[in-house]
Design brief:
It is found in: Cytoplasm. Its main location: cytoplasm. The chain is of the alpha+beta class and about 900 residues long. The protein is about 40% helix and about 25% strand. The protein has 25 helices and 36 strands. Helix 9 crosses helix 13 and helix 10 packs across helix 13.
């Protein structure tokens, strides 16, 4: 059975059971600070389990893109090593929100597996929760009794809290679960060892394929459990493992989910992959197999993350994506011999394979390819640099073991993979101080964990209120009641309180727009300042540094109208900017991200080239023309998404939209948007682009200002212009005056270069008299009154006159120390001298470093006072 058919039969089956089929949410999570990525099928429904929203149907089914590479669910280092772990995977799921429970969930799972997919019952085992005295949760007798009607009791296994009690995190909805495992071993293997003994023991052919979670508890901050108001079903079936079972394979990678990618990797690299049924393979072939599996898995995760809006970067979710891709690059580099970018070429195959089920990978194919290619180029340069640095570490090392701290510096500062370091050291007969490396890594993790640690208390519910009304589109103040609050403590912010109101005029940070600030005023005039507002799991959370004295009182919640006006001005300007870019650069332009603050706006978009100054001016003029037209805001709320799209509204990629949406229209600009906006474009006053540049391959970024910030910008420019005119003695044409100064400066620089070259030549004869013969080497270490280029010329002048020269020249040009070392090529080998090693060692005295070739190298630094000591130590290299 083909994988496309496996997916379709699952969705068709649950549709026949009254489930509404919904599309996969983006793999990149928004509005949930506890998760970077969707790491399970239930993540997009979290708000329903928490009671913060109502689903479109009490029964839902889908296939969800998931990513597990960080936090509690971290499979990254196992991926590729075994045959059944993945970074990105599909989770087939069916959901009940307060509707059916254990009986239906278990019976339907059994029916689908044994009657629709025709998996032999004798290959299946199931587990139920054995209970927990610690949590005062009894053995799941109900699930056991249901399973007894479907399967022999000797195939039912009791599972402990680790295996059979599912929790979304340290706090929140949770409950016992019942797993289904399949035994894919041969008949001979089954006869020797019972599959029952291998369940949950990491056997590659005895694997869990389905987990039925019965959500009925809420885990509180103190670790205790309380009953949820309603019982829910949350199930997940691993699509890749299911395909393995249905296609008669013993490895996920041998199914048609991965084989098209693997065959393409073979074609590109010339490497060969052996499937899991081949035995007796060599160690070299095994390493090649692992590398191919790593690349095939990782390109899926990276491409889908990029398609959903997450570009590789050095922080947060972007860093995770970069780390996944770099792992694939280094496996290719080390075991497949790939020294040029190749992973980006796999996006075409991935698009053909999965584009029907996940159209985003098809529409964003060019972007994914460009970004991955650029990242490959960048990291391959890093690997080349790292190899040079590692060579230097080896060269300067004493003994046969490389210090773990030095290896960690290569890993942490330069991004050089530790396993590649270990491999190279092994090839050179050296050892790695792995304990020292792990100690440094653990210290870094502890520092990072401490910096990001957040401790949240339980919500204290004051008023039961499932629906929180947002009134901030129409007014900036509102009489409110606090419905619940909690205390949160973090290393970054200290102690703060999170408050939820029954209604709020405050806009919570989302959709690229920052949250409102303002205050909460009690009836007696006391003020509590709201320092920020966040959107989390479909509820608006207000952050304060203290609690009101009377928490049950009625308050007046007031938004800072000045900051809101500035933010709204910038948000409306991004819509006009988007329209202008599409008009002037072409309709290929797509928004790839934005940040709207009260001070400025940032807009990322897809484009294949730098935007020229002329094009930027056109865009700027286009936006300002719309501002001068005084276009009124035409807003439509709660309209069907299909109707909005038919009306020409632009939907932004990577965003999760509901069935009902809001549209924002200014003239011909129409977008789906939940943010705040000006009532008329004239309120923006003026739009000014302050910068344009690249973010990633095929992604450009414009930063701009409006309103008061634009006014302040022009005032500042006017002051600067006045000061420039004054410096130029009020020249009638300042531009011509500056050009004349630049021409004069360039001419003087050329004259200076000639003078310095002459000075260097004149110094040659004097320095030649100072050369000392030490152990068959002509030696000199001296500070000279030249610029660094002049010192280089002088070194080469002397070098051309002698074939046994070792000199170190120091300069302090414009207060910056520089060391220049020249070694005659004839004595580099015979005297074991290396200019690069010399300047690296002597550079320490001037608080700097450098490098170069064995016969010529330079080092720059910060400490001019260290020059004398560096020159004094130079003689040690020839003694």
């Amino acid at each position: 059975m083909k994988s496309q058919d496996v997916r379709k039969q699952f969705l068709d089956f649950f549709e026949s059971k009254g489930h509404t089929i919904v599309p996969s949410a983006p793999i990149v999570l928004k509005d949930d600070p506890t998760l970077m990525f969707n790491n399970s099928g239930m993540a997009q429904f979290k708000e329903f389990f928490l009671g913060n929203g109502t689903p479109k149907s009490p029964r839902i089914a889908d296939t969800q893109k998931c990513l597990r590479v960080s936090g509690k669910h971290n499979d990254l280092e196992e991926v590729g090593i075994d045959t059944y772990h993945h970074t990105m995977f599909e989770m087939l799921g069916n959901w009940s929100f307060g509707d059916y429970f254990k009986k239906e969930a278990i019976n339907w799972a059994w029916e689908l597996l044994t009657e629709v997919y025709k998996i032999p019952k004798e290959n299946l085992y199931v587990s139920v929760f054995e209970g927990s005295k610690e949590d005062n949760v009894p053995f799941d007798q109900e699930a056991w009794d249901i399973w007894k009607t479907l399967i022999d009791e000797d195939r039912i296994i009791l599972g402990n809290k680790k295996d059979n009690f599912w929790e979304m995190g340290d706090q929140g909805p949770c409950g016992p679960c019942s797993e289904i495992h399949v035994d894919l071993r041969s008949a001979e293997e089954k006869a020797l060892v019972s599959g029952k003994s291998l369940v949950n023991n990491d056997h590659p052919q005895v694997v869990e394929i389905w987990n039925n979670v019965f959500m009925e508890f809420n885990r509180k901050a103190d670790g205790s459990l309380e009953k949820l108001p309603a019982q829910h079903v949350d199930t997940g079936m691993g699509f890749e493992r299911l395909c393995m079972a249905l296609q008669g394979k013993t490895s996920n990678y041998d199914t048609d989910v991965f084989m098209p990618l693997i065959r393409e990797i073979e074609t590109i690299t010339g490497a060969k992959y052996t499937t899991n049924d081949v035995t007796g393979i060599s160690e070299e072939q095994n390493k090649m197999n692992i590398a191919i599996r790593v690349v095939a898995d990782h390109v899926r995760a990276v491409a889908f993350a990029i398609a959903d809006g997450q570009l590789p970067s050095n922080t947060g979710a972007g860093y995770v994506i970069r780390r996944i891709l770099r792992r694939a690059i280094r496996y290719g580099f080390t075991f497949l011999g790939t020294k040029e970018p190749f992973i980006f070429k796999l996006v075409e195959t991935l698009s053909e394979q999965m584009g029907d089920s996940f159209p985003e990978i098809r529409t964003q194919k060019a972007l994914c390819s460009n970004v991955i290619r650029e990242e490959e180029n960048s990291f391959l340069r890093t690997l080349d640099q790292g190899l040079i640095l590692l060579d230097a570490v080896i060269l300067n090392n004493i003994g046969d073991t490389i210090d773990g701290k030095k290896a960690f510096e290569l890993y942490d500062t330069y991004g050089f993979p530790i396993d590649l370091t270990a491999l190279i050291l092994s090839e050179k007969g050296l050892k790695l101080d792995e304990k020292g490396f792990q100690e440094q890594l653990q210290l870094q993790k502890e520092r990072s964990r401490a910096a990001s640690k957040v401790t949240a208390g339980d919500w204290n519910v004051i008023v039961e209120d499932d629906i929180q009304e947002f009134v901030g589109y129409d007014r900036l103040s509102q009489q409110v009641k606090i419905t619940k609050y909690r205390r949160v403590e973090s290393a970054k912010d200290g102690e703060i309180f999170q408050l939820v109101f029954n209604a709020t005029p405050f806009y919570g940070e989302s959709g690229g727009q920052t949250g409102d600030k303002g205050y909460l005023e009690s009836q007696n005039g006391d003020i509590i300042y709201i320092i920020d507002t966040k959107k989390e799991n479909n509820q608006t959370i207000h952050l304060t540094q203290s609690l009101p004295e009377n928490i049950t009182a009625t308050f007046n919640a007031v938004v800072d109208k000045i900051q809101r006006a500035k933010t709204s001005s910038n948000h409306s300007a991004t819509h006009l900017l988007h329209q202008g870019l599409r008009k002037i650069l072409g309709t290929h332009i797509e928004q790839k991200g934005s940040m709207v603050r009260n001070a400025s706006l940032r807009f990322d978009f897809s484009h294949f080239a730098k935007v020229t100054d002329e094009e930027l001016l056109e865009v700027e003029n286009f936006v300002n023309a719309r501002i001068r037209e005084s276009l009124p805001l035409i807003e439509k709320r709660a309209i069907p998404k299909e109707q909005a799209l038919e009306d020409g509204a632009i939907a932004l990629f990577g965003e999760k939209y509901g069935d009902l949406v809001r549209t924002i229209k200014f003239g011909d600009s129409v977008e789906l948007c939940g943010g705040t906006h000006v009532a008329n474009t004239s309120d923006i006053w003026h739009f000014k682009i302050v910068s344009e540049g690249a973010v990633a391959a095929g992604i450009r970024r414009i930063e701009a200002i409006t309103s008061e910030a634009a006014k302040e910008y022009f005032e500042s420019q006017a002051i600067s212009f006045g000061e420039i005119k004054e410096v130029l003695k009020n020249a009638p044409d300042p531009v011509k005056a500056i050009q004349a100064l630049q021409d004069e400066n360039a001419q003087l620089k050329k004259q200076l270069e000639v003078l310095l070259k002459d000075k260097a030549k004149n110094m040659k004869a004097d320095l030649a008299k100072e050369l000392q013969e030490i152990n068959g080497v002509r030696f000199l270490a001296k500070q000279v009154d030249l610029n660094p280029e002049g010192a280089k010329d002088l070194a080469y002048e002397l070098g051309n006159a002698y074939n046994d020269l070792f000199i170190v020249l120091a300069t302090a040009y414009e207060g910056k120390p520089m060391l220049t070392c020249y070694v005659s090529k004839e004595i580099v080998g015979s005297k074991n001298l290396n200019a690069g090693q010399v300047v690296r060692e002597l550079g320490k005295y001037i608080q700097g470093g450098g490098g170069g070739q064995p016969f010529f190298a330079t080092a720059g630094g910060k400490n001019v006072d260290g020059i004398a000591e560096a020159l004094a130590k130079a003689v040690d290299f020839v003694k």
